[in-house]
């Protein structure tokens, strides 16, 4: 089993919008078809500091029973109500990495804010530093290794929801009991979310 090791945050989402009072913009969508109206009114603006968001810890899995790294789900259908984007922040510890995988149905942008990484994406291999951007078209293999002495801080943006559901299922909320997955549970998880992520066999 392989997980994208992702890190950061405190569960403290700052939300504002139309939840507690009538919204003056509702009148602008009165003549919009029902499906479009739902999309126009369901998303909620967010303002999040670096460590804020839905903090989760990757569960252990067969061969790696200890809990993995922490990551933050910042924007997705559950946090902010975006139906089109997913935004995740994470750190990768020295010597750690992101195992080779691909996302069949979503483009991804990976942006490094600190550290030194060796990135394999498609046929490209390059050592990159803070400020580097990696574009990963849907279906393209990607892997990352932290080759520096410091943690890598990164953010990932996906063009469609899906992977965040896998990450939520493969983790526990920070502070909650973290129970390693059995092989059967691991296999079922990989099968259930194969449309969102596929990991390369060793």
Describe the structure.
This protein has 202 residues and is mainly β. Helices cover 13% and strands 34% of the residues. It has one domain (14-199): Jelly Rolls (Sandwich), CATH 2.60.120.10. It has three helices and 14 strands. Strands 10-7-12-5-4-3-13 form a seven-stranded antiparallel beta sheet, covered by helices on one side. A hairpin with a 2-residue loop joins β8 and β9 (124-129). The longest helix is centred in the last third of the chain and has 10 residues, at 183-192.
Key words describing this protein structure:
mainly beta; 202 residues; 3 helices; seven-stranded antiparallel beta sheet; five-stranded antiparallel beta sheet; 14 strands; single chain; Jelly Rolls; 13% helix
- Helical fraction equals 10-25%
- What shape does the CA trace take? globular
> Helices and strands, in N-to-C order?
EHEEEEEEEEEEEHEHE
By CATH, the topology is Jelly Rolls
State which percent range the strand residues make up: 25-35%
Structural class: mainly beta
Query: Could you state the CATH homologous superfamily?
Result: Jelly Rolls
Low-confidence runs: 1-40
Q: Any idea what the radius of gyration is?
A: 18 Å
Give the strand line-up of the largest sheet: 10-7-12-5-4-3-13
Assigned CATH class: Mainly Beta
- Number of contiguous helices: 3
The main sheet comes to: 7 strands, antiparallel
Number of domains: 1
The overall pLDDT, averaged over residues, is 83
Question: What is the total tally of β strands?
Answer: 14
- CATH architecture term: Sandwich
């Amino acid at each position: 089993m392989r997980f994208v090791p992702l890190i950061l945050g405190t569960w403290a989402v700052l939300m504002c919008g139309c939840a507690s009072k009538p919204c003056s913009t509702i009148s602008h969508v009165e003549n919009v078809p029902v499906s479009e109206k739902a999309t126009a009114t369901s998303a909620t603006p967010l303002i999040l500091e670096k460590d804020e968001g839905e903090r989760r810890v990757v569960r252990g899995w067969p061969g790696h029973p200890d809990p993995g790294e922490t990551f933050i789900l910042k924007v997705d259908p559950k946090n902010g109500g975006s139906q089109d984007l997913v935004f995740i922040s994470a750190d990768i510890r020295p010597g750690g990495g992101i195992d080779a995988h691909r996302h069949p149905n979503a483009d991804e942008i990976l942006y490094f804010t600190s550290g030194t990484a060796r990135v394999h994406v498609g046929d490209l291999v390059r050592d990159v530093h803070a400020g580097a951007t990696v574009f990963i078209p849907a279906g393209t293999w990607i892997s990352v290794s932290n080759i520096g002495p410091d943690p890598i801080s990164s953010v990932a943006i996906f063009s469609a929801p899906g992977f965040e559901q896998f990450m939520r299922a493969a983790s526990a909320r920070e502070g909650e009991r973290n129970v390693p997955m059995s092989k059967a549970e691991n296999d079922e998880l990989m099968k259930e979310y194969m449309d969102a992520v596929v990991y390369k066999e060793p």
